[in-house]
Amino acid sequence: MSLVSQLRLRDPLVESARQKLAAGDHLTQPDGIRLFDADVMELGRLADAFARDKHGDRVFFTVNRQLNPTNVCVLACKFCDYAKKPGAEGAYTMTKEQILSHVDPEITEIHIVGGLHNKWRFDDYLNIIRWVKEKKPDLSVKAYTAVEIDFFCRLTKKPVEWVLTELKNAGLDALPGGGAEVFSERVRRELFGQKIGGQRWLEIHEIAHQLGIPSNSTLLYGHIETRAERVQHMIDLRELEMRAPGFFAFIPLAFQPGTTGLVRRQASAIEDLKTIAISRLMFDNVPHVKGYWIMLGQDTAAAAINFGASDLDGTIGQEKIAHAALAKSPVGMAEMGMVQMIREAGKTPVQRDALYRVIREYPLEAATAAAASA
Ligand code: V47
Ligand code: SF4
Q: Which residue owns the Cα nearest ligand 1 atom 30?
């Protein structure tokens, strides 16, 4: 019997969600909105039980690097502190040598995402994948958001299928989840009117899944979006996963206000944990919800492990997007730091690659034996 069916809860809002999930039903948009007003600890218990029913006590992470090859971008999204206009102070474009310096021997995944460069051609983006794959052929490459894929279609005047096939032939293994922001047209018009909308983002990921390219999904929250828009975003993703399965993870990205002036401060830790837990329950058919510690901060990410998050992304290295927006988290974490964070939350760390193939488990007995013999 599943843990969700065995749980006994006092809060009527969480209990009603539990009953629906135990019966195999999906939660509706009003259910999701109401859960924001529910008892946060009971919400966490339900999301944790839901995650345990999928993965037991296993929490995944990867030893990876984030490579942001250029911050030069032809767009100007109002929430983005990372992008620079060509020639502006602080604009950078990495050389091949700088790019390859990110391919450390110990990593198993590289996550490549950057700006829409005014001078780069599609071949420049393809070469980045070819170079890293040449240096480390067994590396899993998760590269280029749907926004970049759409940009490549415009550069080459070719359809998404062609662009994705070229990227796959160059060594692409998976698409990251960035660029989804919030699918609400209202938010898009206000914050990123020049960028692709929700329909195009969903179309690109649907085609990727049909071509056998798995992907992730994100939600940028904690700015001007409403809770209803957040929940609808999760439902749109759930429906895409039903039509064309292929998502590995959903990553709620906590907006870092930086110098944007959009909001005075980052969402509170309680709001973060509610969003993680509600994501877990709403987007019920995605394998993992990720607690992205770079944007949550380490303490909230550690708590998220007991609020439905079953993945922590990775060690990351020199992250630039959140840190351009003044994120307070360290720029990278050591492998043993991730292991310790998961163990302290009472779960079993599992190192994976970008395709969620298990590389190594760190069972609790091994830790206890090591401590006893020390
Ligand atoms: O698309 C930009 C967001 C995304 C800010 O797929 C910001 O495994 C917060 O998508 N505050 C890029 N977020 C990062 C991303 C990602 C990260 C980790 C793992 C995966 C994955 C994907 O970052 C952008 C945008 O939505 N972003 N500025 C900001 N100030
Ligand atoms: Fe460019 Fe992406 Fe920043 Fe928008 S969010 S300005 S597309 S780098």
A: 256
- The residue assigned the tokens 């990351």 is 316
Q: Average pLDDT for residues 166-186, to the nearest whole number? A: 98
Nearest atom, ligand 2, residue 192 CA: 4
Helix (H) or strand (E) holding 327: none
In the reported structure, the alpha carbon of residue 260 is separated from the centroid of ligand 2 by a whole-number distance in angstroms of 13
Ligand 1, atom 6, residue with closest C-alpha:
176
Ligand 2 centre to CA of 93 (Å) is 15
Per residue in 54-91, pLDDT (tens digit) is 999 999 999 999 999 999 999 999 999 999 999 999 99
Assign a CATH topology to domain 58-373.
TIM Barrel (3.20.20)
Q: Which of 66, 73, 112, 256 to mutate to test the pocket of ligand 2 (most atoms within 8 A of CB)?
A: 73
Q: What pLDDT sits at residue 317?
A: 82
Whether the CB-CB separation of 114 and 68 falls below 8 Å is answered with yes
Asked if residue 77 has its Cβ within 6 Å of ligand 2, the reply is: yes
Q: What distance in Å separates the CA atoms of residue 344 and residue 127, rounded to the nearest whole number?
A: 41
Nearest to 328 by CA among 268, 275, 277, 258: 258
Identify each DSSP E strand in the chain by its residue range. Answer: 58-62, 64-67, 109-112, 140-143, 215-221, 247-254, 288-289, 311-314, 348-352, 358-361
Residue 321 pLDDT level (bands cut at 50, 70, 90): confident
Dihedral angle sign, alpha carbons of residues 229, 183, 129, 140: positive
**Residues of each domain in the chain carrying CATH 3.20.20.70:** 58-373
User: Taking a C-beta distance cutoff of 8 angstroms, is the pair 177, 215 a contact?
Assistant: yes
Distance 179 CA to ligand 1 centre (A): 7
Quote the DSSP letter at residue 213: -
